[in-house]
Amino acid sequence: MKSPAGSAVMAAPAGAPQGWSALPPSGTLRAAYLHAGHILVSRDPCRVTTVLGSCVAVGIWDPLSAIGGINHFLLPERLITGAESPRFGNVAVRALIEGVIAAGARRSSLQAKVFGGACVLRAFRNNGWHLGSKNVEIARRMLLEERIPIAAEDVEGSRGRKLIFQTHDGAAWVRSL
What we know:
Layout: E1 8-11, E2 20-26, E3 29-34, E4 38-42, E5 46-52, E6 56-62, E7 67-72, H1 89-102, E8 111-116, H2 131-145, E9 150-155, E10 161-166, E11 172-176
Helix pairs in contact: 1-2
């Protein structure tokens, strides 16, 4: 499936909406808004915006080929059998890695950044192991298992984030909400 990122690949559950919305180009970069539960992989430079609360986004890119992508997942793990869905961290991280490699990135030079995982509900803030923490933990664990270094992260806390991530170079801007 072609996404607003030109020669991009999109992973979404069967029958689900596209998972992205085209935005006006930002200078020479194509731009897209990534919806929760979806993945965007691009061979062309693309600036991707998303908003995170307890959800987590993992951005992965290959600085040598300038190929990268980003996911936005809601829950840490798919525990029951059924359709694979990028709404789950253990599925979304693996699918993102496979997607950037299929698009031409070199596995040996992949780098990652992790964002989100806030505890936005005051009632759960005294519990150190809330949904946001579990989402961050699965992202870190999957990247460690896949031997992809985490170059930076902006995770947890009590406020949501607006994230802008560039697929070709891993540049990111984060604003607390």
